[in-house]
Design brief:
The complex is a heterodimer of chains A (317) and B (260).
Chain A lengths: L4 H32 L6 H23 L7 H23 L5 H19 L27 E4 L2 E4 H23 L1 H11 L1 H6 L4 H26 L6 H17 L4 H24 L11 H15 L12
Antiparallel strand pairs in A: 1-2
Helix pairs in contact in A: 1-5, 1-8, 1-9, 1-10, 2-3, 2-4, 2-8, 2-9, 3-8, 5-6, 5-8, 6-8, 9-10, 10-11
Chain B lengths: L2 E12 L2 E12 L3 E5 L6 H9 L6 E6 L2 E2 L5 H7 L1 E3 L12 H11 L7 H14 L15 H14 L4 E5 L7 H18 L2 E5 L3 H7 L2 E6 L2 E6 L1 H6 L1 H8 L8 H6 L7
Parallel strand pairs in B: 3-8, 3-9, 6-7, 7-8
Antiparallel strand pairs in B: 1-2, 1-4, 4-5, 9-10
The chains are: A mainly alpha (317), B alpha/beta (260).
């Protein structure tokens, strides 16, 4: 099969849409790491939790009230904001002063707990029916997995929504950080929390705010994930977290617009490299599962040239 | 005397090491107090205790008659105590103006509107001769400029007490003189008290009304600059030995230059 222009453009568009989702998934992680140097490795599990909530919504609320399940991203946003706030106050706040390792281990434990609850259908998680395969997906009424067409190009609705969310929400977040009173407090805290304290900033409140915001973004991403992927209990760690790490490091830690750009770059690279994998002459063909290799290769090359990421700042600045 | 800040029997240790031991001193409104002593004497720990980084194990700290030991640093800041750091710590990825605005917006100036804060920040930058660097990233300023910027950010919180941790260290002779002149000019204007940690004796003598000398976490001597400089115990502490271990004649001959 020759590589046609149309297929290439379609792959490019798919990549951009997918990249928007990646950016949305990674932004909260990047914000939290930038502000309080906590690697929230439960971020993937947070996204999956929101995805399951959306699936529950599509099973329980949609048939009863005829609300499109896409609206569940708003309760997801609130639920994860609440979860993030609780996790910060009950766990992270008590241990973050001890250094880097304790919050890392704590959030790792939290992700295992969430995965355990999800795979056993405990608490808010729907019981997964094994006859439908290992994953679950949001059940739609009217919209289903709708796609619409612009010219010859197909766009999947939920993916397009993730893209729109990313290009709207992330610049707003950037503006919030650079222009507003609380945004200034967050930036000051991320640059030097002690100096921020002595300037009169309540850094505990700032860290709480950043953890809530970062987690709420995971809620948005998770709600949308449920429409485009089959959701499994461990998808957070297996599918999302590696990509999130790549996007955050490529974009430059704590840089929201960098995260957005890196999301697009990773999305397009993955999508185009899968296409190339499929269209190479048969003797050169490789399995499509190897396509992520190309992404990581590009990732490594970029970091060799620019160790601080695309939009990161060097330590000296 | 109605003291602005009063430390009463403060003790703080780290593991087995006693960093500050039963320390008491006070400072009145508008006074300039020097805090000196050899490295490891516990001077910076005193700043950290006053500003709320550490909580004293024993003793109390009063500011304006109110106990402040146990408060968080931002709460201490909002009462009117500001500080600078031994190694400069501006917000490196903000402009000089934004650094000062942080002190204004979050300190006790009461200014919240960005426009007023901008205007006021430029006034303070002019005071410390950094107006032409207002839009330069703090990380790109020279050390002398970063020190003045830190001072400006601390001033922006409208302190009644400003604690300066080695504010002239690392500066050349003319930069040092400029900094001392600046402090002598703005201190009475703003009616604030200063506590100055310093190793450079010329700066201390030009600035301070009174000096507290610390050694090994304890107060060794307290008095006017000239009294302190003549004190044999001070000289011995700086020379790293007890005065009576060696013959006294030797330590007296080095006394005039030793503390520098």
């Amino acid at each position: 099969m020759a590589l046609g222009t149309l297929e290439f453009v379609q792959a490019l568009v798919n990549g951009l849409l997918q990249g928007g989702f990646f950016a949305l998934s990674a932004a909260g992680f990047s914000l939290i790491f930038g502000v309080q140097k906590v690697l929230n490795v439960a971020h993937g599990a947070f996204i999956i939790l929101a995805a399951f909530a959306t699936i529950q919504f599509s099973i329980l609320v949609t048939p009863a009230l005829h609300i499109d399940p896409l609206f569940s991203i708003f309760p997801d946003f609130l639920m994860l904001a609440l979860l993030g706030g609780s996790v910060y106050l009950l766990i992270i706040y008590r241990i973050e002063r001890t250094g880097f390792e304790a919050p890392l281990l704590a959030t790792f434990g939290l992700s295992i707990l969430l995965e355990y609850l999800a795979s056993n259908g405990i608490g808010p998680f729907p019981a997964l029916d094994p006859s439908h395969g290992i994953g679950a997906q949001a059940q739609h009424q009217s919209y289903s997995s709708n796609a619409f067409q612009i010219g010859p190009i197909f766009l999947q609705e939920a993916q397009a929504l993730a893209f729109v969310m990313a290009v709207v929400v992330l610049p707003i977040l950037q503006l919030f950080l650079s222009r507003t009173y609380r945004g200034r407090a967050i930036r000051a805290t991320s640059q030097d929390w002690e100096a921020a304290e002595f300037s009169g900033i309540n850094t505990k409140a700032v860290r709480l705010l950043s953890f809530i915001t970062g987690s709420a973004l995971a809620g948005l991403a998770g709600g949308l994930f449920a429409f485009t992927n089959s959701v499994t209990a461990t998808a957070g760690d297996e599918v999302l977290l590696p990509v999130i790490l790549v996007v955050v490091i490529l974009g430059g830690v704590g840089s929201i617009l960098g995260t957005l750009a890196a999301g697009f770059l990773v999305g397009v690279t993955m999508s185009v490299s899968s296409l190339i994998a499929l269209t190479l002459p048969s003797q050169f063909q490789f399995h499509a599962d190897l396509a992520p290799l190309l992404t990581f290769l590009i990732f490594i090359v970029i970091l060799m040239v620019r160790p601080r990421g695309l939009f990161g700042h060097s330590a000296a600045e | 005397m109605d003291a602005l800040l009063e430390l009463d029997g403060i003790t703080k240790s780290f593991g087995g090491l006693v960093a500050v031991k039963n320390l008491s001193f006070s400072i009145g409104e508008g006074e300039i107090l020097g805090l000196i002593g050899p490295n490891g004497a516990g001077k910076t720990t005193v700043f950290n205790l006053i500003s709320g980084v550490y909580r004293p194990e024993a003793g109390s700290i009063r500011f304006n008659g109110k106990v402040i030991s146990g408060l968080k640093p931002h709460e201490v800041s909002s009462l009117g105590i500001a500080r600078t750091f031994q190694t400069v710590r501006p917000f490196a990825r903000m402009s000089a103006r934004e650094n000062v605005m942080a002190g204004l917006l979050f300190g006790r100036s009461g200014i919240i509107a960005p426009r007023r804060a901008t205007q006021k920040a430029l006034e303070i930058l002019e005071l410390v001769s950094l107006l032409d660097k207002a839009e330069v990233r703090a990380g790109h300023l020279t050390l002398a400029e970063q020190k003045r910027l830190e001072l400006a950010r601390a001033l922006a919180t409208s302190p009644k007490l400003l604690m300066l941790d080695e504010v002239v260290a690392g500066l050349n002779h003319s930069e040092m003189n400029a900094m001392v002149d600046l402090l002598r000019r703005i201190q009475p204007e703003r009616g604030m008290a200063l506590i100055v940690i310093e190793h450079v004796m010329k700066a201390i003598v030009r600035l301070c009304n009174r000096i507290v000398v610390m050694n090994g976490g304890e107060k060794l001597v307290e008095g006017s600059p000239s009294e302190v400089m003549r004190d044999e115990r001070v000289v011995a502490a700086y020379m790293g030995r007890r005065g009576n271990d060696d013959d006294d004649g030797e330590s007296t001959t080095t006394s005039s230059s030793a503390p520098q």
